[in-house]
Specification:
Blueprint (H helix, E strand, L loop, with lengths): L5 H24 L6 H9 L7 H35 L11 H15 L4 E2 L2 E2 H21 L6 H26 L2 H11 L9 H20 L1 H7 L3 H6 L4 H23 L5 H13 L3 H25 L8 H19 L8
Antiparallel strand pairs: 1-2
Helix pairs in contact: 1-3, 1-13, 2-3, 3-8, 3-11, 3-12, 3-13, 4-5, 4-6, 4-7, 4-11, 5-6, 5-11, 8-11, 12-13, 12-14, 13-14
Length: 342
């Protein structure tokens, strides 16, 4: 693992932040119903709040862009963190079962017809978030007794619990009436199109930021875990405690992301790998860059999903898979002779 200089850290972060800002700008200015020039005018000269341009930019596009950034950043940093503590290149929220718990919560709320709201969040969002957190507790509780084999046990337990919960998701989906079936399917494919109020967006951002800060603070411990648990202990890192804190922080951000946007695949897997292949495996740089580029990637994918087919919006999860796989294969082939984790 090459030494990370402060200059490199700053330059790479500034570059990632600039890319994120550019993607957000184009995400807000490109789309159907309002041309580029009209969008610029609405952003820099909002005019009347009741005008169509104001409503499209400030009430529809910008909240959706911010939601995409929050969700993409959350999934990306969670994937990077899981890969670090488990030392497994395939580790990400879906493999550990957390997303399946969120899906079960969402489907249950639709099946039961729950219409409640909590702090501006719909019943589906609340149930999905609770499903993610409860699944996190269940997976960790079942795997905790494995001692030194905890990281292997977490992966196996997560896969089994995820498969078990997915069976219930399919069961309740089959019982949902036809009028609500579209909502279930669209949510499970990843959907950023549901209206999100400013308070709800702020609350989601707070959840993701809180969990992400906790993960950022663990970056040094992630680096020591890469050498194995025994070496990590010799260097002053407690592997069990580090994995516990990571599971809490990552589950918090994944719960917020899944509850707001459904099941969006590939972001938590491809972005950390792409960052690792380009910038190296030092988690002090890997985590914040994955956070920023994960948000940029999903915002760009959502912009494509909104305009690729006239008068129709594709689920953003379709775009992340179609765009992500080729990019990752190209990067992997270019650096295939180098190790992912060092």
């Amino acid at each position: 693992m090459k030494a990370l200089t402060f200059k490199k850290w700053v330059l790479v972060l500034l570059g990632a932040l600039t890319l994120l800002a550019v993607v957000m700008f184009f995400g807000a200015t490109f789309g159907t119903g309002l041309g580029f020039g009209e969008s610029l005018s609405a952003i820099f000269s909002p005019g009347e709040r009741d005008s169509a341009s104001y409503q499209i930019i400030w009430m529809v596009r910008l909240p959706r862009v911010f939601l995409a950034v929050i969700v993409g950043a959350a999934l990306s940093i969670a994937g990077a963190s899981f890969q670090a503590i488990l030392r497994n290149p395939l580790a990400e929220p879906y493999i550990l079962g957390i997303s399946s718990g969120g899906a079960l919560g969402a489907v249950l709320s639709i099946f039961l017809g729950i219409e409640l709201t909590f702090l501006g969040f719909s019943g589906m969002t609340v149930f999905a978030f609770c499903g993610c957190l409860l699944t996190m507790v269940l997976v960790y509780a079942l795997a905790f007794g494995a001692g030194s084999h905890l990281r292997h046990s977490l992966i196996l337990t997560g896969v089994i619990v995820g498969a078990f919960l997915s069976a219930f998701v399919l069961f309740f989906t089959s019982l949902v009436d036809i009028d609500r079936l579209h909502s279930v399917i669209y949510w499970m494919m990843g959907n950023l199109g549901n209206p999100v109020s400013e308070p709800s967006l702020a609350a989601l951002g707070a959840f993701v930021l809180t969990g992400s800060v906790l993960l950022f603070l663990l970056a040094r411990q992630f680096n020591t875990l890469a050498f194995g648990d025994e070496t990590a202990r010799a260097l002053g890192t407690n592997p069990v405690r580090t994995r516990a804190f990571t599971f809490v922080g990552a589950s918090l951000v994944v719960g917020a992301a899944v509850s707001a946007a459904g099941l969006i695949g590939f972001v938590g897997l491809i972005i950390p790998h792409a960052v690792r292949l380009v910038f190296g495996s030092d988690n002090r740089l890997l985590l914040p860059v994955s956070f920023l580029l994960g948000g940029a990637f999903l915002a760009a994918a959502d912009a494509v999903a909104r305009v690729i087919i006239a008068n129709q919006q594709l689920p953003v999860g379709v775009i992340t898979a179609l765009c992500g796989a080729p990019v990752f294969l190209i990067l992997m082939r270019a650096r295939m002779k180098k190790s992912y984790f060092g």
